[in-house]
Amino acid sequence: MAKKRQSVSFAAYVAMIPMALTVLLAYLGTMLWTARVSVSSSRTFPASDFVGASQYIRLFNNERWLLSLQNVAVYGVLFIAACLIIGFLLAVFIDQKVMAEGALRTIFLYPYAMSFVATGLIWQWILNPELGIQEVLHKLGFAGATFDWIVDQDMAIYTIVIATVWQASGLVMALMLSGLRGVDEELWKAARIDGIPRWRVYVSIVLPMLGPSVSTAFVLLFVMVVKVFDAVVAMTQGGPGTASEVPAKFIMDYLFGRANIGLASAASIVLLATVLAIVAPLYYVRNRRAAKGA
């Protein structure tokens, strides 16, 4: 029996070898290579010299990069907040045992199954001043109505928020709903007996219980914020001008359009460090809580 267990365990380790190699070579290997290129003078082709932090200094002296950081900060705060709030409200709505619950779950979650390119194109048409909402309002008789955010430098980034919130809220809804379905029914009975308003139960009791779901949703949304690219390119191409420029588009432009892989690699490492700075503490806290619970 012991030999059989050892053979099964050995087979499991053998089956994990391809994934381990993928992680080591495709992920860690490329990250280390990118870090090495970021401290070289590489432009069109990788160079083997060492220039220290000069690429990072050039990066943070680049106005376009600083604008992209500003844009992604505004986008990230609004996107994550809106997705968490809307997703939670949708989950609460569906948790009321509404009719056609399965159909509603599918409808709310369906946008997440679409690519960000498709989402961007759909919302580009909807927000186009000559084809979308503004034109519809004009045909309804509201001749002075304007909704031209997508071509307004001050408002373009908010159109990206609208489109991506529409797409990602369903994912948050699904995560929150799974957490709500784990809440003990006795809690609701006790709250009704004590006369506690339902909204107060959600805010004071249920939301703290949904901590794991909220943190998971936050991490997934944060990763979406860092790598937002497809929706921006499909909707605005980073414009008007550079009004909706984001770090991922900056990296792709300098990597392929301007043939400056040293600067693009430095920007990539900055984004990687940002993700690790946010995700690593959350992962550590969750593991500590799990260990204390065990």
TrEMBL record:
It is found in: Cell membrane. The chain crosses the membrane at residues 12-33, 72-94, 106-126, 156-180, 201-226, 261-285. It is a multi-pass membrane protein. Keywords: Cell membrane, Membrane, Transmembrane, Transmembrane helix, Transport. PROSITE patterns: ABC_TM1. InterPro entries: ABC_transporter_permease (IPR051393), MetI-like (IPR000515), MetI-like_sf (IPR035906). It comes from the Bacteria. GO terms for biological process: transmembrane transport. The keyword Membrane applies. Residues 69-282 form the ABC transmembrane type-1 domain. GO terms for cellular component: plasma membrane. Belongs to the binding-protein-dependent transport system permease family. This is ABC transporter permease subunit.
